[in-house]
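Lab manual, section 2.4: Encoding a predicted structure.

Procedure: take the sequence of the chain (232 residues), apply the prediction step described in section 2.3, and record the output as structure tokens. A sample record is shown.
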Amino acid sequence: MSTSITSKAVRNMIGLATVGMFALTACGPDDTTTTTTTATTPPATTAATTGGSQSTAPKPSSPATGGAAKSSAPTSTGGGGAMATAGQTFKIGETAQLPFSSGDTKGTIALTVTAIEAGTPADLVPLKLGDQASGKIPYYIRYTVKNVGTTDLSFTTVDHMTGLLPDGTQGQDVMLIGTFDKCKNDSLPSGFTNGQTAQGCALVLSPSSSTKITGAQYWGDPFTLDKGLVWK
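Recorded output:
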């Protein structure tokens, strides 16, 4: 069974994925069709690929070399630091303090992209993405989240993290439901109050082995896809 959904803003439509189903989107800037395809996947893992649309995020200054982007110890701005502003750029390892919302829960977090790591095509085999992953290389955007506000953020989710190619356009996002050991991105744990920290990961595909994911962008509310926070 397949269902087509026509849209001019493919990147802003996130398909709903359930166990045993993944949505495949392989759209460039001029494409207008998202296709949802039913397939057999391992019971614990469901993947959905989206993205590939044009982004106006700032261009990274230079491509990353080797398998991972440069990483350093996070620079904390927690607690009383200034809030990050739309379009602001950080180095890998630097921390941005920002307002955060998930459903009806609102608070303040300190977000740090700690590394951008290249994987291998074999990493994607358990996800059974088929031809949609052919020739593509997985990249893992690793980040930390710290609660620096007064709200209990238990069981909320920090997502809206994507990868950027050298020309500033997006890679192809992969939404995971279930367990994928190479890139765990669970909800924030119980008791995630002020001072608590957690690790997160976003899985993004580059179009080929010769094109690297060299930056990361967070565009969750109150930011937008074209004016998010950028790490490179």
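Check your result against the sample. The chain has a mean pLDDT of 76.
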